[in-house]
Each structure stands twice: as structure tokens, then as C-alpha cells.
Design brief:
0% strand; 96 residues; mainly alpha
Length: 96
Amino acid sequence: MTFAEEESRSHLSMPKQSANKENIEILKKDINKLSYEECIAELESILLNVQDENISLDKIQINYIKGHLLLKHCEELLQFCEQEINEINPEFLNID
């Protein structure tokens, strides 16, 4: 089951009028558990959902919020990876 399917069936479903802060915080915690690859898969799923001509405005709003949080998490994961790469001491790479 994908993250999107789990989320839609769980208590995290956001109200139709607006996404309240509590649900967003729970969503953030769940997203922070995802790997980079899982986040990309979720972003691709959101993209497909948004391209549906019959999507409601409420679903567009929910997808926007999820997409924003997923993208932010991806950026944080990439920054962490970049930092780790920059900290590699070239002397450790000498296998001579």
C-alpha cells in the first residue's frame, strides 16, 4: 500500500475547507519517515492526481500541501547527503 493510500484511509484526512495545523504536523512526521525514493514516488502520484480533469478543488489543495511537504523533505535529504559528501576526507579514499 502506498503512502497516499494509507494516508487517505487514516485519521490524517484533512477537512474539506482547510487543512488544520494538527493534521499538517502529523503529515510532516509521516513524511519525515520516508526515504528520498519514496518521496519521489509520492510526488509522481500527486502529479498524476492533479492532472485529472475531474479533481476537486479540495483535493488540489490537499495535494499541494502534501507535495510541498514532500518536496521540502527531499531537499533536506539532499542537503544532508551533500553535507556528508563534503565531509569525506580525501585521505580515506586512498586505497594504495
